[in-house]
Amino acid sequence: MASDERLARFRQAHLNPFNKTPEQPERPDGEPPAPAQQPDPTPGDLEGTLDLGLAEDHFSRPVGLILASDVPQLRRAIEECKRVILALPEHSERQKDAVVRLIHLRLKLQELKDPGEDEPNIRVVLEHRFYKEKSKSVKQMCDKCSTIIWGLIQTWYTCTGCYYRCHSKCLPLVSRPCVRAQVSHQAEYQLSICPESGLDSQDYRCAECRAPISLRGVPSEARQCDYTGLYYCSSCHWNDLAVVPARAIHNWDFEPRKVSRCSMRYLALMVSRPVLKLREINPLLFNYVEELVEIRKLRQDILLMKPYFITCKEAMEARLLLQLQDRQHFVENDEMYSLQDLIDIEAGRLGCSLTEIHTLFAKHIKLDCERCQAKGFVCELCREGDVLFPFDSHTSVCADCSAVFHRYRHTGAGCGDVGMAGGDPALSPPPGTATMTTPPPVPGVPG
């Protein structure tokens, strides 16, 4: 008890001078003075209900100083600040200060909900390589929570491989692996048209995040991906449109279909990769699409021109082969196609551009470069006509020795088949072509 009394006397001797109340007159009867009554707050003095630092006195707090330390306190301060702003006269200095105070409160609340001061610049999650974005003015959509990313007040990350974007607070919740890793490990398409297996096979859950879904939209709408045939929730399927490879190869159908976010990013990364061997997947496609036959012939000619450019100094200096740098597989083989090749063929763009490149290459070999001209061929059967090149439309190349002949004088097989084209009308010389004939034997003269 003695210690309590000493503590009370110490506190009484060290009172805060700013907390002193006006002295009350002593009452004659010896009763303790009545506590001072505080006046009720008026609408013009609403800022007194919560100390927001808006008082224009010598002891007011700076604008950036916020005493609230947790989310509930900040929410209460924000609501109180809103009421103060509505009660103050419009366009007054006090209202402007209150608005500034409200902005700082909201920024502080956002920092507590989405901390970003000490976060690393690189985060690795499910093979994603997330880099912290520096832009503060770009407005993006979060791929995880499907809400807007406000770069001014929120920290967000982007995967450098598949361009997956999300809030900093959503990083621990990411459930989709990086599709760039999938492309690197196994670059191939699903070549079955919408291979649906039913929502019950997925246990009525999203194929990616495993959230409950149903066809009736309760609790979340089930959206089918036309590429994988699986069902997704609205957060994993944004009704993005993309060309489905299976429909393009089997039906020559390039109408964009609704696909999930994961499929959309996978198809975007795979669109320029030459992984489609049409002769094995659908060889009948060349019988119905004339443009494919033309493109195949142009590609075969370019492969025959390639040896000329590799051994030509002028062609190497002019970098002629870089005309096809966007389609490098065109100078490697004539069988592999990318999905972008098929899209451009159907649109008519690839045929025009490839014809121009073919003309440029042929002009260099046959007209502009003397070294390339000297590498031409003379038909060994007739030894007539101009210099022949293997990519000419009227020539035939021997499969054994690569010699070049007129097409109508060679069967197109190996050296054992070299000879005149018998009685086949298709292999007979064109009208007006001079041919060598053997004169009949003269009687009495040794043959």
Task: Offer a quick outline of the entry.
With 447 residues, this protein is α+β, with helices and mostly antiparallel strands. 32% of the residues lie in helices and 9% in strands. The longest helix is centred in the N-terminal third of the chain and has 21 residues.
% residues in beta strands: 5-15%
Which residues sit in consecutive blocks of at least 5 with pLDDT less than 50? 20-28, 41-65, 418-447
Query: What is the structural class?
Result: alpha+beta
User: Oligomeric state of the chains?
Assistant: single chain
Number of strands: 14
Give helix and strand order, one letter per element, not per position: HHHEEEEEEHEEEHEHEHHHHEHHHEE
Sheet having the most strands:
4 strands, antiparallel
**Mean of residue pLDDT?**
76
Number of helices: 13
Bulk shape? elongated
Specify the helix fraction band.
Answer: 25-40%
End-to-end Cα distance: 151 Å
Give the radius of gyration: 41 Å
Which sequence of strands runs across the widest sheet? 1-2-5-6
Topology:
Layout: H1 2-13, H2 71-87, H3 93-113, E1 122-125, E2 128-132, E3 139-141, E4 148-150, E5 156-159, E6 165-167, H4 179-185, E7 223-224, E8 231-232, E9 240-242, H5 245-251, E10 257-259, H6 261-270, E11 276-277, H7 278-281, H8 285-288, H9 290-310, H10 313-318, E12 336-337, H11 339-347, H12 349-368, H13 370-373, E13 395-397, E14 404-406
Antiparallel strand pairs: 1-2, 2-5, 3-4, 5-6, 7-8, 9-10, 11-12, 13-14
Helix pairs in contact: 2-3, 4-6, 9-12
